[in-house]
Structures are given as structure tokens and as C-alpha cells.
Amino acid sequence: MTLLIGALIIGLILSLLALGVLVSFRIFSMPDITTDGSITLGASIAAVLLVQGVNPIFATAAGALGGALAGAVTGIIHTKFKINSLLSGILVMTALYSVNLHVMGRSNVPLMQATTVASFGEKLGEGLAGGKTIHILGWPVASADAAVLVLALGFTAAAGAAMFAFFRTQLGTAMRATGDNPQMIRALGSNVERNIILGLALSNGFVALSGALLAQYQGFADAQMGIGMVVWGLASVIIGEALTGTRSLGLTIVGTIMGSVLFRLLVAIALRWGLNPNDLKLITALFVFAALVLPGFIEKLKRRAPSAT
Amino acid sequence: MLTIRGIRKTFNPGTVNEVRALQGVDLTIEPGSFVIVLGMNGSGKSTLLNAVAGSFYVDEGTLTIAGHDVTKWPEHKRAKLIGRVFQNPFSGTAPTMSIAENFALASKRGHARGLGWALAPNLMKPLRDRIASLKMGLEDRLDNAIGSLSGGQRQALTLLMATWLKPELLLLDEHTAALDPKSADQVIQLSDEVIQRDKLTTLMVTHSMQQAVSLGDRIIMMNRGRVLHDIRGAEKKRLRPEDLMDRFEEVRRRELLDESAAAMLHELYI
Questions:
Q1: DSSP-derived 3-state class of residue A101
Q2: Does B92 touch chain A (CB under 8 A)?
Q3: What band does A309 get if pLDDT is binned at 50, 70 and 90?
Q4: Closest alpha carbon within chain B to A193
Q5: Which of A153, A197, A285, A304 is most buried as measured by Cβ atoms within 10 A of its Cβ?
Q6: Where are the alpha helices (DSSP H) in chain B?
Q7: Using CB atoms, which residue from B84, B94, B108 is nearest to A181?
């Protein structure tokens, strides 16, 4: 049960990362590898502030802001200096590796003693339940875990709703149109370059927020924690699209959150069945590869089938 | 309304791909004037429109729209003054977004976009009425993705979007060239209606002699990046398609002459 709840919580926290990837990859059609650096940046900033005793909410917000800044830098390199979007992301990601080490002062910051949003949730849960465990449908559950899960669920839902609302505002629709047809939105007087910079800032802000929360839940920030995370986010987005389709923005956002949770659950089950953790990134990459290639491949087979008979 | 002074533009200067697209164009267009721009492929007519719209900056010369010197304005800033419809029906609309959202974007052309709802309630009623007036049955499909519509429908909607806020200048760049004849007629009729109703200052590029003769009050004929003929007033009214064909023929003959002369010189001296 603890394992299940743990997987659900991490899935929910990482769904913020997936939402960030949704913005860069689907709305702006730009696979943005800044993600790998900005998730660690969010975690590093939050961790260092927390160790110094800063209020967890402020520390988390500062982490998210740091990620937004990193995204904006990628956007500026891409739009103002006309560097390929993928390369812009690679440059910033590489630079962030050093930045993160400087922020943390070493490669790993543990948060065992610090007050975090997670420890706050745990205390809240134990206070409300009046004991260490509560029973849900007859299962004994640590009340601390249950409270953190509810908090994570509430926060993710609010973040998803906020993103949905934003993309329905005048500015948000202009940003979506920028990804859809830049020529059109430019002719309608919106600054395409600014929109891309803002979009990547928003995307990486979500990613770093996810990193800041993840660090607090797992109890440490680590310089290596971002490796392969953009692919993780892509996998969640793709699973989400399979679950809810892409007909409307709201469904896509809900699907992405569900995709992230489902993917984390699958991974937890696979690890429990004896999957070597070292193979995790390889399998994630293969999964995304298959998900990107299969639809076109199936189309081809379908088109070939009638002529063969 | 639009004043063009000695604009020049050379693409890829100093390379084998050098193209002198505009070689000194002067043009003054009065408010409310509907100008047809004609010319053969490569004559610079679309380049002229793009120069006005700000798709690139000109090498020399100045552009003034409604009293603003826009020569150094970026494209998105000029959009405050300009409505545009492109040749490609896919260019003027955001395909995955709904009809209503596309119009919401157009209703903010040249204005600051804030955090208010894009689909403002006070937009929906006039939008439904205006789209119903097209008689294409689209008023009940405002939530459908605009990419699911035909080229003709998209081009009609793009025209409405470009003129939703009255532009100081309307640029139509062969906007019916990619449509089937029936849709093209519809879109042309709609264009003429909107232009007459709002008295829009318009520059329209076309290949169709028929359109050139029946529409507008002035014809600019371009050749090799310059204005070759400027036909207006009574002369424009009297003009028949055959007269235009003659002028084209004349241009073509001159070009051929240039080519044969070049070939002869080449043979004689190299």
C-alpha cells in the first residue's frame, strides 16, 4: 500500500513536469531539453533555501521561478540569436549542470531535517487523523502518506486548471496560435518571438516546480536527478493522448496528468517484478520511440492492406 | 493612406542567387482606393505586398501608412494598421483552434493581449451574426477546428478576420488563386462587398484579367521590380481584358527581345 501511494504521489508531482513538456512539445512543437536542467534547478534552489530555513512555499516558488528564467534564456537564444531550438535547449541544459552544482555547492543536498511542504503535509495528516495510521476501505494507511497524497492531488488539479484557464485567455490563445501558425498570429499583431520566450518560461516553470516538490518529497536534491526527464515527460504526454485524445485542450491536460500517474504506476510495478532500475531510461526511450513511430507505421500497413488483397 | 518612396530590395545580395526583387518603387495610394496589382511571375508584385506588410525590411526607401512611418516597424507592429489575406488558405488561420478562437485572436489585432477570456461573451453574438451572413452554415460550427473546413471557407473566414477590426490598409495576395472557380467567385464577391461597405483602402494582387478589369479603381502593372503601368480613373473604367492582354504581350515581347539579344551577343563574342 505504501508503495502504491508513493507511486501515486510521485506520478502526481511529475505530472507537473509532463504539463511543462506538453507546453513545449505539443503547443510549441519544440522538444525542449532544457527540461532536464530546469527540473534539477528547481530542486536545487528549493533545497538550498529549505536548508537555510526559508518558508517551504516561498522556496518552492523560488525554484519554479528559477526554471522559468532558464526557459526564457532558451527562448531568447532560439528567437533572438536564431539558433535551432533543439540546440538552444542543449546549450542551456549543459550550462545548467554547472549552475546547479554552484547553487547546491555540492552534488547532493539532503533535506532530512528541513521543514518542507511534504513534512508539513505529513504533520497535517497525523494531526487531522489523530494517529499514525488511518483505515481506507479496510487498508491500514499511514495518515502522513494519505495527507501528502491528497495535497499532491489537490495541487496538481489546481495547477492543471490554472494552465487550462491561462490558455483560454487572450494571451494564452495567442501563444497557442504561435505554435499552430506563426505566420497567422504575426499578421494579427502578436509578437511571435515574445510568445515563444514566454511559452518556454511557462513550460520550464512547471518543470522546475515539479523538481522543487520532488526534492521535498524524496528528501534530497541531486545534480543527476534531471537526466532523461524530458523523455519521461514525453512518455506521459503520449500516454495521456492515448487515454483522452487531443480533441480539446482540457482533455489533453487531464490526460497528461493521468498519463504521468499511470506511467509511474507501471514503472513501480515493473521495478517490483524485478526490472533492473538501470534499464529504466532505456525502456522509457524505447517506449517513446515506439509511440512516435507506431501510428505512422500502422497507417502504412492499413494503406497497403487493400492493395495486397 | 499608403505612401511608398523609392523602395528597393535585393535578396541574397552578392551571391549567385541574387534577386533584385524591387528596384525603386514609388506609389501613393489615396484613402478608400482599391488598387489591383498585376504582373508576371517574378515581377515583384507579391514582394511589394510583403514589403508593405513588413515580412522583411527594405534596403532603401520609406513606407508610410496612415501618417506613420512604418519603414522600421516589425511585421507584428504593422499588423495594427494592416489586414492580410494570403494566397495559401492554410496561412491565415490557426488550424487546430476553433472558428470562434480564431476570430477572438483577430478581434485583438494590434491591441494588447491580456489575461481576459479570449472568448469574451460580447464577441460571440456579433461573431455568430457575421458568420451567418456568409450563408455557409458555419454559424453552428463555431467550436469546430478551423482546419476541418474547405479552402474556400477558410479563405472567406480569413477575410472576415482581417477586416474584423477595420484596417487602415487591406492586403490581398492572390487570395483566390488556390481555390476552385466557384469558391474563388464567392470569395471575390465577399471581398468586394466588404471593401465597398467599409471603404477599405486595398491592395490586391491577382493573376486574373477578369478580376483586374471588373474590380477596383486603379491598376498597377509591375515588371522587373518596377511599376510599368499605372492605369486609373476613366481609363481604368474603359479597360477591357483584351487591352490588358495586349500590355502583357508587349512586356513579354520585350523580354523575349532581351533574351534573344543576349543570346546573339553571347554567340558573337564568347
A1: helix
A2: yes
A3: very low
A4: B76
A5: A197
A6: 45-53, 75-78, 99-106, 121-132, 151-162, 181-198, 209-214, 233-238, 241-269
A7: B94
pTM of the model as a whole: 0.90
- The ranges assigned to domains in chain A are 2-226
Residue-wise over A147-168: b if at least 16 C-beta within 10 A, else e? Answer: bbbebbeebbeebbeebbeebb
- B16 or A48, greater pLDDT: A48
Rounded Cα distance between B19 and A306, Å, is 49
Say yes or no to pLDDT of B87 above 50: yes
Mean pLDDT of chain A: 92
Q: Confirm whether the ipTM is greater than 0.95.
A: no
Q: Interhelix angle for B99-106 vs B151-162, to 10°?
A: 30
Helix (H, G, I), strand (E, B) or coil at A231: helix
Q: Which of B263, B241, B222, B229 is nearest to B42 (CA)?
A: B222
Domain chopping of chain B, boundaries = 2-239
Residue A76, C-alpha cell as written in the block: 531568447
- Show the cell assigned to B178: 488556390
**Measured distance between the N- and C-terminal CA atoms of chain B, rounded to whole angstroms:** 51
- pLDDT given for residue B39 in this prediction: 87
Query: What kind of fold does domain B2-239 have according to CATH?
Result: Rossmann fold (3.40.50)
Q: Cell numbers at residue A271, please? A: 521495478
**pLDDT reading at B258 higher than 80:** no
SS3 B145: strand
Nearest-CB residue to A187 (from B79, B96, B113): B79
Residue A295 is predicted with a pLDDT of 78
CA distance A17 to A22: 9
